[in-house]
């Protein structure tokens, strides 16, 4: 899942991004609304965690732009105000969910994951295919009933492959969904991660390489 965090309180923004990365999400961070619009114009995000009171371009205008463009991106709006009227106003702007500050990080994570499931065709919360069972909320992976410990990027790649439901996923698509914008697109990070993931998942291999196209399960 690819997430953009837009928050002008830099310590909070960086803390949220670090926490979401530990949950195997690819996260970009910006600190004002203008930078948010630039990123949205370049990258495809599943979820934008959007502070409402932003400098340069207000969060309301960022939200309006996402809606205007007809993007599948879901918006989780944050605000220091917890008034019902503010929550209603934010939702009427086009936000998909609303979370007042201060918030529990576990709740933020759960809401981001729930919104991420709504950016594509609805899938069950627990993904299963070819003997693999992946629970994004619990960060657990099992093969034939045996738990497998994965690093965050390995988990993210496996989740993308399982969500494709057997379709081929290119290396570029994996890079887009499982890594943030600071990753060099010319590295072999995808290939190396897939190799490590294959080894951890064990025999017989479940990740198939489709020459010239990508990978599938």
UniProtKB/TrEMBL annotation:
- State the DNA-binding region(s): 124-217
Which InterPro entries does UniProt cross-reference here?
CheY-like_superfamily (IPR011006), OmpR/PhoB-type_DNA-bd (IPR001867), Sig_transdc_resp-reg_receiver (IPR001789), WalR-like (IPR039420), WH-like_DNA-bd_sf (IPR036388)
Keyword NADP part of the UniProt annotation:
no
Q: Which GO terms describe its cellular component?
A: cytosol; protein-DNA complex
Q: Where is the Response regulatory domain?
A: 2-116
Give every OmpR/PhoB-type domain span: 124-217
Enumerate the GO terms in the molecular function aspect.
phosphorelay response regulator activity; transcription cis-regulatory region binding
| GO BP terms | regulation of DNA-templated transcription
**Pfam families, from UniProt?**
Response_reg (PF00072), Trans_reg_C (PF00486)
Q: Which organism is it from?
A: Streptomyces mesophilus
Question: Which residues are annotated with the PTM 4-aspartylphosphate?
Answer: 51
The answer to keyword Nucleus applying to this record is no
Keywords assigned by UniProt, alphabetized: DNA-binding, Phosphoprotein, Transcription, Transcription regulation, Two-component regulatory system
What job does this protein perform?
A: Member of the two-component regulatory system CutS/CutR, involved in the regulation of copper metabolism. CutR suppresses a defective melC1 gene, encoding a putative copper-transfer gene, probably by altering copper metabolism.
Q: What is this protein called?
A: Transcriptional regulatory protein CutR
